[in-house]
């Protein structure tokens, strides 16, 4: 790939939620502050929502890494769970050894007993649930019942929900009003501003080992900000394609043309209608990159 060409130690714009690349811009820094404060206060339910690609999963992983020394953390990345599956998943995440033939009532009782034991050992338990908008009504109710468990002073388990805006729509339903009323802290992740996009791009390149003058000028960063609408995932996709284009041509500088090609090749981006590359298809651009790489290597 283009790692050695641009003197990088790792891929700077992958879509995997690598916490090494966490960029504490205002929205994510504020969200982390809300989360840590709410957990310290012992709140039962905490909620973070944001559009697709705004960095909720990365924030969830960052929180997990940050609190795991002080809390007993259970993490559920898959929220497509029935109430029964939720109970089993919690038991597994808590490290419980339970008889798989147990009925649901007995399983719930064992979980409750184990949570009490952890509380007596001064262990604070936090359950992190990603993609929480996918939780069914029945599973949300089962989750609420878990937060009924408390001593005179403390909740036995705290729950943090990460989800898309559809989670807010679901929680607005009267079916889950009891759960909704227990959410004392919430935060809505916004998209990045143009200046934040520029900082974000340079930050990821630096973390990946780039230590030369900026590859992306402010002008080019503004183009990416406009096309991506400040969504981190789209910024990553565009920047990765831009670096591929430059590498394929044997160029160690980024141009507007590289940006336009990447935009034309990326779904969900705001297109420039005056762009002469508007009609380029994914296949055409892929062929162009492969051909350019082949030609460039012939020069070596």
TrEMBL record:
CDD domains with a match to the protein in the record: AAA (cd00009)
Pfam family membership, one: AAA_22
Residue stretches spanning the membrane: 277-296
Domain annotation ORC1/DEAH AAA+ ATPase: ranges: 42-171
InterPro entries membership: AAA_22 (IPR049945), ExeA_AAA_ATPase_DNA-bind (IPR052026), P-loop_NTPase (IPR027417)
GO terms assigned for molecular function: ATP hydrolysis activity
Keywords from the UniProt entry: Membrane, Transmembrane, Transmembrane helix
PANTHER family reported in the protein's UniProt record: GENERAL SECRETION PATHWAY PROTEIN A-RELATED
Protein name, as recorded: MSHA biogenesis protein MshM
Species per Swiss-Prot/TrEMBL record: Pseudoalteromonas espejiana
